[in-house]
């Protein structure tokens, strides 16, 4: 299925009755309602072997589905075979994502969760299983197509990628293979200059210069 | 008055952790809301003239020595909304400092005076006849001297700037060193995470300690919720003091006959809207512009190390005038996390291959003269930034991308990455039109960032078309002033910090 027809199908299924403007926003609250209804109807199809696995204790601020989505996205987005890059399994990617999400205000956090849930579940329509159960090449192709798709697809693909990418590359363990220097001031022994001296007496007089 | 005494380093700041009373009431001659470019300058100028000045800053106080030079960490600790402030469609990050010193702490140090053709627009279209180049020139001279503004020396033009300069020379495009407010640049490349060794001449190491030397008091963690008035005049503000855990520890009232709003072009209109003040014109929060910028990255056949050396070295002003394109290009360094946001080379292996070759990348920042088409609003619970690149500005954006691509190729790049949601790579001049002309002006297609929000309380002579007068006082409320980039009636194409410093100096002196 090409990206255009996929976009049309998604729009048909998910946007019925919803104002387009709502999809132009991060505000995806209405999607949560639709997703919940659809999830009920497609409960069988959306089952995943991962559902039987609970999230680890440290992931208390994520739902089980969110944990599985981010962990699968880590595998999809960060392949290192054939490179000198550090295996993402050695980096606390999902922990870092959780920390980022904890900075969001509650409303945005809820809407983002709904949107990412949509990304996970929508693959049921196109691939017969959730995103977390797609083979790696299929998952990557889906995200590539979504980057070319409608606003909603572009938004969700971009959000997922940015969360995963920044969560991986913020870890200092990933820097050495690409020769990124990281913090340098202390390493270089740069001196602290302190506060600048008070300015001298020269100044512009408002009375003299104002027309 | 006794001789001013200034700390050698750092500031004395009242913080939430110092609070012992749940209700605090203070009195001052002037209360300044915000400690960034406008607030710090206004506070210094007024304190120096003997006024009792109180500065209220919503963000935390983070001393320079505590800066980590880690961009992710800095976003979370120094930036508005922990680095997540965006427009309502989420495709434009609006990055502003939210700490003592404001955006001056995390900017790239670039200094431009307001272009004269912009001032002429203001004179012609907004009745700001007194804001001439001759009038503002002495103020520019003074703030530039105070902040050690200088042309980048050769050692401050990093490898990425050198290759870009060479490419521009081949194309015959006008290129100049950027001017920056910095002393003895440490060449760390970490400007956007704050300058740990106090070399960037941000408000944190200049006007704020200078204001304190003249008696100004600074309160961090203190968000102003309402401007107070009595008999149609400003009479103070109400604020809350909130700890880093998000718990409100005190309410704070400052009684003052003059209130200066300098919280930035997003927060200042929000505060006026929450207060229900100064909006006879209906223009508060309107006319938001932001210089939506792209960082166009390209791969070179030799190592560039875009994170090494001064962050910003040279700029191309060939196209600055609206008649010639209305945009500028600045060579820009970046770190490894920023790189992930620039390009979409493809999901999986293509992206990791792009990252694995990070050292071979260089970047060009595009800044366009956008129209004031956005709106800042407040729905009672949350602010909202509604801004989409206008159809009138989209051609400028495409011209800027094309120029950046041409320049990269002329500089020797082998691949130029269009910062879009889909995979767009330019390898030759023949690719440029195909890859850029097919871009859509639609949400989430381009990956835009703004460091320059402006225009939301615009200056003007007509009280029915503008919020403040040329002297910074609001048309509607005596004693209530605005002294930040909200003032700017149009976008100014260039980095606005010098414009704000100069206007804030002028406003404070006229106020006194």
Could you explain the architecture of this structure?
With 211 residues, chain A is an all-alpha fold. Chain A has one domain (3-48, 56-172). Chain A has helices at 3-14, 20-23, 29-41, 64-77, 93-101, 106-127, 136-147, 151-169, 185-188, 206-209. The longest helix of chain A has 22 residues, at 106-127. Chain B is α/β, with parallel strands linked by helices and 512 residues long. Chain B has a domain at 1-148 and 189-274 and 473-480 and 490-512: FAD/NAD(P)-binding domain, CATH 3.50.50. In chain B, 25% of the residues lie in helices and 21% in strands. Chain B contains 12 helices and 23 strands. In chain B, helix 1 (37-48) packs parallel to helix 6. The radius of gyration of chain B is 22 Å and the shape is globular. The interface between A and B is large, with 67 and 89 residues. Chain A: It holds the Pfam family Gluconate_2-dh3. Chain A: Keywords: Membrane, Transmembrane, Transmembrane helix. Chain A: The chain crosses the membrane at residues 23-45.
Keywords:
heterodimer, A: 211 residues, mainly alpha, 10 helices, B: 512 residues, alpha/beta, FAD/NAD(P)-binding domain, 7-stranded antiparallel sheet, 6-stranded parallel sheet, 12 helices, globular
- Number of beta-strand segments of chain B: 23
**Can you list the strand order of the major beta sheet of chain B?**
7-15-16-17-14-20-21
Low-confidence stretches of chain A: 6-40, 207-211
Kindly name the structural category of chain B.
alpha/beta
Separation of termini of chain A?
A: 68 Å
Pfam family, one (chain A): Gluconate_2-dh3
InterPro entries (chain A): Gluconate_2DH_su3 (IPR027056), TAT_signal (IPR006311)
Keywords (chain A): Membrane, Transmembrane, Transmembrane helix
InterPro entries (chain B): FAD-dep_OxRdtase_2_FAD-bd, FAD/NAD-bd_sf, GMC_OxRdtase, GMC_OxRdtase_N, GMC_OxRtase_C
